[in-house]
Task: inverse folding
């Protein structure tokens, strides 16, 4: 079965805010702001094609832990 991923782009002159939502999911995931160029958009799309490599906080946490670094994931609202 083919997976569907909805992508939302809020486009401005100098930046693009990217969000996604898998089919059937009730919440969108914000992927942040990128530079408003086609190259930056292509890089983000390539990253979203491999969701297991997406640099969200927990992926980075486990990446650093495997290499022996102490790391914590903290919500921005708590900083």
Result:
């Amino acid at each position: 079965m083919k997976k569907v991923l909805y992508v939302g782009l809020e486009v401005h002159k100098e930046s693009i805010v990217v969000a996604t939502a898998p089919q059937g999911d009730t919440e969108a995931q914000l992927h942040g702001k990128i530079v408003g160029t086609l190259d930056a958009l292509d890089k983000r799309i390539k990253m979203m094609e491999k969701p297991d490599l997406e640099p969200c906080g927990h992926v980075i946490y486990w990446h650093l832990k495997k290499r022996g670094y102490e790391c914590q994931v903290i919500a921005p609202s708590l900083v």
The first strand starts at residue 5 and ends at 11. The chain is about 25% helix and 30% strand.
